[in-house]
Amino acid sequence: MATLSTTYTLPAPAQADDKFPAVFHHEFLLEQRADPSSYTPSQTPTTVPPQKSTQSALLLHGAGQQYTLVTDHAIPTISKSDEILVKIQAIGLNPVDWKGPAYNFGIPSLPWINGRDLAGTVVQVNDPSSRVRVGDRVLVPSTDYRDIRKAAFQQYAVATHFNAARIPSSASVQASASLGVAFVASVLALGVSLGLDFSKSERCPGPNLVDVVRGIDVDSIPLDVREQCFAAVPVHERLKGGEWIAIWGASTTTGYITLQLAKLAGLKVICVADIARHGSRLHGLGADVLVDRQDPERAVAVIRGVTGGKLRYAIDIVGSETATLLERTLDGSPREDGSHAHLLGLTGLPKERKPGVVYHTVPIKLFHSSREVGEGMVGWLEGLLASGVLVLPEVVRHAGGLGNVNASLEVLRGGSVSGKRIVVDLGE
Ligand SMILES: NC(=O)c1ccc[n+]([C@@H]2O[C@H](COP(=O)([O-])OP(=O)(O)OC[C@H]3O[C@@H](n4cnc5c(N)ncnc54)[C@H](OP(=O)(O)O)[C@@H]3O)[C@@H](O)[C@H]2O)c1
């Protein structure tokens, strides 16, 4: 086990200066650096690697199978200057963790290690000028699932410093393991696919990702998400403060984050969810209109009524069936400025296309493939957490470490934990 020295220094926030592209809003940078004392004191940037070469990990040996716990898996090694090694203390469970093996997707080869949300302590840093230091507590959305070193279902994981957000001392590691992937999906959906400018937020300004994406080398953007990355370049198509947006599946973890970010940017938000169960929390987070999901036809009628049949932006977080319902709430008739209605599906889109509607997915790869985008997003997340502006998802803590992940995924799959994130505790 790594033993950390007791000499503490505060993080050096000014080091981020030369790494941020000029397009970043000035207040955004100020906000990120607002309160360095709110982070756990960091140690000097020396390397403190684990004192052993093997670890426990969960291996997937085939589609349709459970994960197998092994205790002799090699600890992953960092190989690039922007990489760090994290000792994992908590894992947030996402639906994809059981859906991938069940439906045979997202498994590059076998045996494989899965797991997308982790939080823990940095034990090794390659670059001494990295924004993250040994001893920092960080949360990491592990979107780069093709790199087995970065998976969450193991004791140690590799990450890049631009995909690791420092956890403020006001938040626990367990609570912080709950929101990473949901945050990444929400920010990229709203900020890249729909073009919402977060720098306009008064309470905690974020990045204008349309500008950030335009500043990066096109060839560095993976081909399969390139079109989506530039979908919101035409100014008249972009989602702006004051507009209505409907979210179907607002009680999902991703929905809770999307609602909060949309309100921060000044949108009017319609939330479709089980209102008896989740209405109080959604109302507390600023939802403008609550629509019950129990009667989907009625929900479509209510959304059309509230927006006068003029809705132009909608996000579905449930599946193609509810995306098809949401599509019917959109006004696809041509606008004077030539702009369209926009429907984004996180879990699927309608089979048929409606004229006048532009369909979107979320370019999740952009988070780990672009340092500028990743750094802008985790920097903003640090500001949102330190200032308390972003309310964390409710968490159900499961003890038992990696050995309990299979059972916890069964609970998630069963749907009994509703509106909360299951977080598996790996201990110190
Ligand atoms: N494309 C991507 O990169 C990406 C990224 C993140 C997430 N996702 C996807 O987004 C979805 C949500 O993920 P998550 O982690 O945020 O989910 P989650 O927190 O596990 O969501 C659970 C919630 O879904 C709600 N729900 C189930 N069926 C519903 C329906 N028909 N209408 C409205 N709400 C419904 C449940 O509400 P009740 O309490 O009412 O049952 C429950 O509160 C998943 O399918 C996930 O795979 C995709």
Automatic annotation (TrEMBL):
One of its GO terms (molecular function) is nucleotide binding. Keywords: Nucleotide-binding, Oxidoreductase. CDD domains: enoyl_reductase_like (cd08249). Residues 34-55 are annotated as: Disordered. Coiled coil: none annotated. It comes from the Eukaryota. Pfam families: ADH_N (PF08240), ADH_zinc_N (PF00107). SMART domains: PKS_ER. Gene3D superfamilies: Medium-chain alcohol dehydrogenases, catalytic domain, NAD(P)-binding Rossmann-like Domain. Residues 36-55 have a biased composition (Low complexity). Residues 62-423 form the Enoyl reductase (ER) domain. Belongs to the zinc-containing alcohol dehydrogenase family. PANTHER family: PROTEIN AST1-RELATED (PTHR43482), ZINC-BINDING DEHYDROGENASE FAMILY, PUTATIVE (AFU_ORTHOLOGUE AFUA_3G15030)-RELATED (PTHR43482:SF2). This is Oxidoreductase. It comes from Aspergillus ellipticus CBS 707.79.
